[in-house]
Backbone:
C-alpha cells in the first residue's frame, strides 16, 4: 500500500473536458500522472463513487469551498479521483460546480487505485472494485501526507484536514 515518501505510479487517468482549449480536445483527455504532477503541489482526494451520498453531499463540496484557501496555502491543483469513467466524472463535476476549482479524474479500470493499493471491494453491494476514501498531498509526484478513512467514515480526508496538511507542509516551499 502507498505510504508517505512514495512516488505515485506513472499511470494515466482520464478527464472530461467541456470546453476545448489549446492542447485539450473536447471529451476525455489522458492525464499522465508523472507529467501532470511535475513541479506541482497537488491535493488529491479519492472516494468510492460519483453521485454517492457522502461524496456528493460532503466530500466534493468541502474541497470546492476550501479551494481558495488551499491555493493560498501553496496547493497548485486539487484533484478528485474515483473509479468511474471520465464521462461520469465530467457530468458529476458539472453538477457539483467544480470548474476552475477541482479537477474530476476518472480511474475507470481502477488502474491507479490498484497500483497504490487502496482498493475497496464493494462487490457485495453491487458496485464492484472501488477506491477507499482518502486524501493525500503530493509534491512533484511524491506523497507528503496520506490520510485514509476507516470503512464507512469521513473524518480525515476532508478539505479542512487537507488545508491543515498544506499549511504545515508547504510553508516555505
Residues:
Amino acid at each position: 500500500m502507498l505510504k508517505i515518501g512514495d512516488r505515485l505510479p506513472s499511470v494515466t487517468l482520464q478527464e472530461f473536458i467541456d470546453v476545448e482549449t489549446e492542447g485539450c480536445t473536447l471529451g476525455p483527455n489522458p492525464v499522465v500522472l508523472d507529467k501532470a504532477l511535475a513541479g506541482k503541489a497537488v491535493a488529491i482526494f479519492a472516494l468510492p463513487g460519483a453521485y454517492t451520498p457522502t461524496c456528493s453531499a460532503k466530500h466534493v463540496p468541502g474541497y470546492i469551498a476550501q479551494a481558495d484557501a488551499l491555493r493560498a496555502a501553496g496547493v497548485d491543483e486539487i484533484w478528485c479521483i474515483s473509479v468511474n469513467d471520465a464521462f461520469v466524472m465530467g457530468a458529476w463535476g458539472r453538477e457539483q460546480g467544480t470548474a476552475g476549482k477541482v479537477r474530476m479524474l476518472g480511474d475507470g479500470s481502477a488502474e491507479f487505485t490498484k497500483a497504490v493499493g487502496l482498493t475497496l471491494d464493494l462487490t457485495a453491494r453491487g458496485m464492484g472494485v472501488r477506491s477507499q476514501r482518502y486524501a493525500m498531498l503530493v509534491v512533484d509526484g511524491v506523497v507528503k501526507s496520506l490520510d485514509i478513512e476507516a470503512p464507512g467514515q469521513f473524518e480525515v480526508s476532508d478539505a479542512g484536514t487537507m488545508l491543515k496538511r498544506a499549511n504545515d507542509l508547504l510553508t516555505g516551499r
